[in-house]
Structures are given as C-alpha cells and as structure tokens.
Amino acid sequence: MEQKEHLSNERPPVVFVPGGIMPAAMAYGPLLDVAKGEVQPIVKDLEVYATDTPPPDFGLELEVEGIRRVADDAGAKRFHLVGYSAGGASSLAFTAKYPERLRSLALIEPAWSGGLMTPEETADWAELDHAMSLPPGERMRAFMRWQMRPGVEPPVLPLPPGPPPPWMAKRPAGLEAFARAFKIYNLDTERFRQFQQPVYYVLGGLSTRYYERAAKRLAGLFPNMQVEVYEGRSHMDPPHRAESERFARALRARWARAEQPL
C-alpha cells in the first residue's frame, strides 16, 4: 500500500451512508478494512430501513436529520461525508442544509441530484418508474439493469451464502419510497456554489449515463469538485467495494486538502 496522505487532524470523523440495497457495514466493509485506524468511522444505515416498512410520510428530510443526529451523537461538529446512491442523494441534501458541518464530501453516483429535468432525465425516470411498478420479485432485477449502460448486464451481488438475509425483504419498498421522495424534495442546488470544501464525485465506466450527466451538472455548481471515472466498474460494482485501496487513497488526498486553509 502506498504511503498515506498526511492528515493534520488525527483520526478525523467520517460519516459513511450506503445505497438502498446493502446495509452500511456490508457496503463499506472493504473500505473500512483499508482505512481502519486512520479515521473515526461513523457507519450509518438509511433511515428508510429503521422500521419494517418505510414511514408513510418518508422524505429526504428524515435522512438529512438522521445524518445530523449520528454526527451529533458521536460528538462530530465537523466531519467528512461519504455517500453512495440513495446515501449520496441524502448527502447532497445534507450539504445544502448543513454545509458548515462538512469538511469534505464524497459522492459515489448519487441516485438523485436535484436540478431541472432534461429530456434525457425525463426518459430515465420514466424507465425507472416502470421498473418500480413491477411485482417485487421482478423489481430488483429491473432496478439493477437500469443502473447499467445499454447491453451491460448487472453483476451478481456479493451476498452471504445461504437463504436471503432478512434485510433483503425491505429493499423493494425502500427503493420505491426513495423514488417518490426524490420527486417532491426541494433541493436548493444554488447553495452548492458557496460550498468551498473538496467534493469528490465517482463514476463507474459501465454505469448508465444518468450519473455522468449529474456529474457535469454538479461540477458547474460546486467550485471545488473533481470527477473520477473507474473504468470497468458500475453502480452495482462500485469502487468503494471493488477498488477499496484506490478509493481510500483518493479520499485521503481530499481529506488532507480539506484541512488546508481556504
């Protein structure tokens, strides 16, 4: 492993928020194995799965306040935030509401990034809405296929052997709840123009171009954002799991830069 970037603050707090399928500990396990001892990890599961079924009034506000709550409980006044997919969308909403709490922001293909709906995004969401309308037994596979470039089949998820874990049964309803929440949440993207801390946006080379278009839009808002493409990776085979050493090096570089005076 290459020499680590120097961090001026020893073991800075980092909140890790997962996507809508895997629990946080499983999603970030490989990355935390690499970065253990370097940070104070605050591994946070999504609020939508805190109960057996999503709350009837579920919205991104619940996820935003959940991030704030776990940081407060850990005594982290300012922290680095890493969010993937639905967790990335929640992290963007947190950044818009509580920018002063963040040292840096890392986004791994956020599921939603606000903004105006272009014709391409309208078509993307129509396809996703169709996937979400399928019976639960078909919904997950259609959702995974939507994440990929045309003609690219999604990989098999690395689940533990044996019968499906209990948390899997919650996933179809949770994904549907997020899809509804994105449509009604008012994300003030103009606030991103004042966010001076480092933003790291990760793309998979095999992922749907929906995330590439979002990256371009956000890069026009965040003044200190860098985009990196991980070739051969996708939304269902993301860098924080598949290339955890490389991803950790990239995070260290952003964390070190975040400690420098603006």
Descriptive overview:
This protein has 262 residues and is an alpha/beta fold. It has one domain: Alpha/Beta hydrolase fold, catalytic domain (Rossmann fold). The protein is 41% helix and 13% strand. The chain contains 9 helices and 6 strands. The chain has a 6-stranded parallel sheet with strand order 2-1-3-4-5-6, with helices on both faces. α1 crosses α9, α2 crosses α3 and α4 packs antiparallel against α5. The longest helix has 15 residues. The radius of gyration is 17 Å and the shape is globular. The protein starts with 12 loop residues before the first strand and ends with a helix. 40% of the residues are buried.
Quick rundown:
This protein has 262 residues and is of the alpha/beta class. It contains nine helices and six strands; from the N terminus they run βαβαβαβαααβαβαα.
Total number of helices? 9
**Overall mean pLDDT:** 91
Task: Tell me the β content.
Answer: 5-15%
Please identify the top-level CATH class.
Alpha Beta
List the main descriptive attributes of the protein structure presented here:
alpha/beta; Rossmann fold; 41% helix; disordered N terminus; 262 residues; six-stranded parallel β-sheet; 6 strands; globular
